[in-house]
Design goal:
The chain has about 400 residues and is an alpha/beta fold. The protein has a domain of about 80 residues: Alpha-Beta Plaits (2-Layer Sandwich). The chain has twelve helices and 19 strands. Strands 7, 8, 9, 10, 11, 12 and 13 form a seven-stranded mixed beta sheet that branches. Helix 1 crosses helix 11. The longest helix has 18 residues. The protein is globular. The relative contact order is 0.14. The model has no long low-confidence stretch (mean pLDDT about 95). The chain binds L-homoserine.
Length: about 400
């Protein structure tokens, strides 16, 4: 039986306004926003001033408010709001991927302890309904991998650079203007934002809680002219890919740019669109595509969580109970293309299996299987760019065992 719900909203930025608008236009969801907590009361607002307050107690202390929707930027303050809301008997909906990724295990425990839901569909890939599908639709499938484009801003930038020959800097400014980029866009272009989303997805795909600092992220900020030339000569594009897969009792996961062949399912994903490719033992490969950033698309995912609360939905973190506990590992060899200034001391001997390479002018380009940890170190060096090879091979490191993984 659907219940009418009263919402206290924290934050009225891009997503908060999106939620307000989709909520006023939707027919089906029985919910109304009673108060909106904001930081700056002097800003001109599009709604009556009595809706707004700068005092969080106006929401947290109001017994008529059933749900706190947390859509602020500050991940530390956001976690405080979530904790206070749940301990005071309110359900929470949030889209704060960093806050969730850094505190997911505690968020899981808070829900068990207080019997309240914390839902966060909008935190991973905007409008794509992935968390609830992982929880419910793939309830009993044996999921083996999840990968895709988990960041709208970088996909927008790469689309503009590849298809419209725009400069990287101009495309980034446009992504900021359109409200896709984070307040600190380094979180997007250095691959942190998709990493936070991957951490959340890993919990619902494999039942493993992993801390963001354990997951390696390589961004698109170092992509070089050599990479663009290599892509053009080989009819490839570049996408920032987040991926996690399971082998035996280990889960591997990382974010890195990758050369993508034209027939690959990610090749046609353009602008702020995201895509998630899920693979399970029974359903096999499935692809979800949708807008990964923006006011209405993310607002629609938040709305869907509010709607789910009208019938008492909560995540059960089902994969935690379905198999022997899995552990997260970075002991992986990855096939990558590394381009760098000639004087940088990277050689073919650094590669576990060297495949090809060339030197031209002051640049070198080497391709082969190399440890993920080494790639992370190289990607932090000035003048070095790391892009995974098209259809990259992944191999569990010799420290573990050496079977080749079949991951597209
Ligand atoms: N900055 C994020 C992105 C917003 O570009 O995908 C949506 O999470």
């Amino acid at each position: 039986m659907k219940k009418k719900l009263t919402i206290g909203l924290f934050g009225f930025g891009v997503v908060g306004q999106g939620l307000y608008n989709v909520l006023s236009q939707t027919q089906g969801v029985k919910a109304e926003i009673k108060r909106i907590v904001i930081k700056d009361k002097t800003k001109t607002r599009s709604l009556p001033s009595e809706l707004f307050t700068t005092n969080k107690e106006d929401v947290l202390n109001d017994p008529s408010i059933d749900i706190v929707v947390e859509l602020i930027n500050d991940h530390v303050a956001a976690f405080d709001i979530v904790k206070e809301a749940v301990t005071r008997g309110k359900h929470v909906v949030t889209a704060n991927k960093r806050m969730l990724a850094e505190n997911l295990e505690e968020i899981y425990s808070l829900q068990q302890q207080y019997g309240k839901s914390i839902l966060y569909e909008g935190s991973v890939c905007g409008s794509i309904p992935i968390i609830r599908n992982l929880e419910e639709y793939y309830d009993n499938d044996l999921l083996t991998s999840i990968e895709g484009i988990f960041n709208g801003s970088t996909n927008y930038i790469l689309t503009k650079v590849f298809e419209e020959k725009k400069s990287y800097a101009d495309a980034l400014v446009k992504a900021q203007e359109l409200g896709f980029a984070e307040t600190d866009p380094a979180l997007d272009v250095e691959g942190y934002d998709p990493k936070f989303k991957l951490v959340i997805a890993i919990a619902h795909t494999f039942g493993v809680f992993v801390q963001p600092h354990q997951v390696i992220n390589i961004g698109i900020d170092k992509i070089s002219e050599t990479d663009l030339k290599y892509a053009k000569e080989n009819n490839l594009s570049i996408k920032l890919v987040a991926r996690a897969f399971k082998q035996g009792t280990k889960v591997f996961g990382f974010v890195a740019p990758q050369f993508i062949e034209q027939h690959h399912p990610l090749a046609s994903i353009r602008n702020e669109y995201n895509a998630v490719l899920v693979e399970g033992a029974f359903a096999e490969k499935q692809t979800f595509v949708g807008k990964g950033a923006g006011s209405y698309p993310t607002g629609s995912a938040v709305l869907s969580d509010v709607s789910a609360l009208t019938y008492g939905y909560c995540y059960e973190y089902k994969k935690r109970l379905q198999h022997e506990p899995l552990t997260f590992s970075n002991d992986l060899l990855v096939e990558a293309v590394v381009s760098f200034e000639k004087e940088i001391p990277i050689t073919i001997h650094d590669f576990e299996k060297f495949k090809s390479g060339y030197a031209a002018n002051s640049k070198q380009l080497l391709c082969g299987l190399v440890s993920l940890e080494k790639l992370k170190t190289w990607s932090a060096l000035p003048g070095v760019s790391v892009v995974l090879a098209p259809n990259a091979e992944f191999k569990v490191s010799v420290r573990e065992k050496t079977s080749v993984l079949e991951v597209a």
